[in-house]
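quick one if you have a minute, typing this from the bus. below you get a single protein, a line of residues and a line of whole numbers that encode the local backbone shape. could you go over both lines and see whether the tokens make sense for that sequence. anything you notice is useful, everything is just below.
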Amino acid sequence: MEITIERDVRFGTGAGRDLHCNIHRPADQRGKQAALIFFHGGAFIAGSKDSIDARVAAFAQHGYVCIAAEYRLATEAKWPAQINDAKACIRWTRANAGALSIDPGRIGVVGFSAGGLLSLVAAGAPDDDDLEGDGGNAGVSSKVATCLAYYPAINLSAEHPMTPEHGADAFRTQSNPNTHVSAGWPPTMLFHGTEDVTIPLESSIAFFEKLRAAQVPAEMHAIDGVPHAFDRHPELAEACAMLGDLFLERHVINPRTYPPFQPGGR
């Protein structure tokens, strides 16, 4: 499928400077009328929206309007600047749903590692005054319909470079997705490599179990024998996008449940 990329589109501001995104637009949206907003990884000290083109394209090939968003790194600003910027992009996407040819109720977030944390917090804390910031489109909801998180950095230490000089306790609470889990959490899919030594697989498994306990629609995919950022390999990025597309189809695009399975698989 033909994909066009519009780079460096302004979506809001952070502490007075412009924030930008790249829009990967498929020639055929296949009736999905849905947008996915992507947040790159890099431990909040590195990475950029331009570094995830291939992984974003894997989802655009399935007909989603894909938006790779910039956010301020810890070298520029402390928490909650990062989630403020993420939410500014969500609000911008909803405010521009008509121009993007999407349904404002079909906006999801996707994040990798550090970006996985942002996607989870954005999913679990919509319209939270303490986290919204003032990056633009005030009054527009930051609620999302779904979340996909790849090897997310769930538990940050109080010594993380993003920790504000004052308010370390609030940082650890607000930035931990576990804080925000409730029955209203949107459908969520987690991906993690079994050989990840950067962020342990067990952290995603524990979070998945917490979502299940809250009766949140959730899937957990542990990919055997691969390390952190395994989806840099094109075949794995494509496989995860296929799984993600099925999940999104079931929970967002054409919500449906399957009839109960009979004993013995009949």
About this structure: Residues 111 and 127 are 19 Å apart (CA to CA). The chain has one domain: 3-265. Residues 3-265 form a domain with the Rossmann fold fold (CATH 3.40.50.1820). The two ends are 38 Å apart (CA to CA).
